[in-house]
Every structure is written in C-alpha cells, then in structure tokens.
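Recall the central idea of this unit: under ordinary conditions, the amino acid sequence of a chain determines the structure it adopts. In this exercise we apply that idea directly, starting from the sequence alone.
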Amino acid sequence: MSKTIATLVLLAASAGTTLFAQDNFFSQWEKRTSRTQSRQPSWSVPLVSPYPMLIQVLRADFTRQVTPALTDTWNYGGSRGLNLIPGFNSEFDFYYPPYIQHNAKGAKDGFGDVGFLYKYRILSANEKNGNYMLSAQLTATIPTGSYSNGSTDASVSPTLLAGKGFGHFDVISCVGGTFPTLDTAKLGRSVAWNTTAQYRIHKIFWPEIEDNATFFYGGKNDGKIQNFVTPGITFSKFKFHPSSETSRLAIAFGGGEQIATSTLHTYNHNLVLTARLLF
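Accordingly, the structure predicted from this sequence is:
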C-alpha cells in the first residue's frame, strides 16, 4: 500500500514538473516575442502587401475576384497561415493551402499551394526612437495545388521591405521577385512592387490605400504590367484581456477592394476580407 502511495506521489510530482516546464516555455516565448516587437513600430499589417514588421498571428483571408468575363472566384484562406517569432529578429511563417472555388464552366475547385517564409529584421526603431523599419524575407512555394489551382513548379521569392512613420501616418514599401525553379521560359519571372499608406485613428482604426504593381519578364505576359489600387481599412487590435499589460491574445480584422488600373489584369475587382488572431 505504501509503495502504491509513493508511486502516485512520484507520478503527480512528475506531471506537475512537466506542466510547469510547459507553462514556463510558453511564458518565456511570450516575453521574448513582446521584447522583440517592442523594438519596432506598432503599425497595422496591410490587407494585401507584404510588410517589414515581425508579427505572431494565425491569419485567414477571404477574397472574391471578378474577372473581365464577369465570372467570380472565391479564395478561402488567401495563402495566409501561422506566423511565429522565435526571437533573433526573425519570423517563420507556414502558409496552408487555400481552397479555391470557381464559378465558371470547366473550372474545377480545389486546394492551392503550400508556402513557407523566413523574415529577418535588419533595422528597426519604435515610435519613440525613430519610427522606421527595414527587413528582408524569402518565400518559397511547393506545387501542392489540385488541378489548375496552383503552380506547376515550385518558386522562390526574395523581397526587401521598408517603412517609415510620421506621427499617426506611415508608409510601407517593398520590392521582390518571383522565380520558378523549373520551366522558367513558360512561367516567366515577375517583380512585385507594393506601397501602402496608412493613418491611425483612435488607436484601432487604420484606413489605408495600397498600390500593388507586378512587372512580368518572360512567359505569356512578357513586358507587361499589372496594377491594382486597393483602398481598405483594418481594425487592430482588440485584446481579450485589456486590463492586463502582459496579455497578448487579441483579434484584428479588416476589408478592402482591389481595383484594376492597368490594361493587363487577370481580374477587374477583388474583395479582400481578413481575420487575425494575435498571440
């Protein structure tokens, strides 16, 4: 009987130690993330454009593209996913495959490609110490899409990202290329240049306007440019425990509309909705 009681005591102590270790791990991760983010501006993440900030979030976007033929395509997920800040001025992202629903004859619904991202923050200063950022990132995609809902080949996309704030106003700009790993002659290469202007109102309202330009080299659109202007707004952030200074759990959301402004455009309009769980 005494051996049984001793065994139970040891098991309870072991379980308590394990739980303490887990709590300590997550607690230290949260503190490290908060320290990392405290050294950068607290700008809202744009609707479409890449951004130089390091963020920790579970994100899902939903888009509805209307083509020149007046057919529409829904994208559930928007090639977003889980973003983590492990420290070291770095961010790692995993982009789960979006589900793409077509409303045109002959088009088959299905999942898109899986993606990964690594970002390194080169320079940063929060609003009290300069209000600027400079980062570099590398994105990779794997052709996991079903039917024609993804690319036929993997690709890599290096990008340079920067931003500068002026009081409640900030401008974020980034430029990067997309390079297929195979069949470059058919798929071509592209360079994307995105610029976002935001203005903060009462801490949580972030009206914005983006310019999303893509320059094509090789492939069927060689020498052409596709450009969209995207007005929108994000609401960030609403904390689950606003009275706690250390609590990180919060939600953010927003919406906008991409509007084609170039002769070449794969769609006329694109409704963009975003939902984000920050932790």
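The two ends are 46 Å apart (CA to CA).
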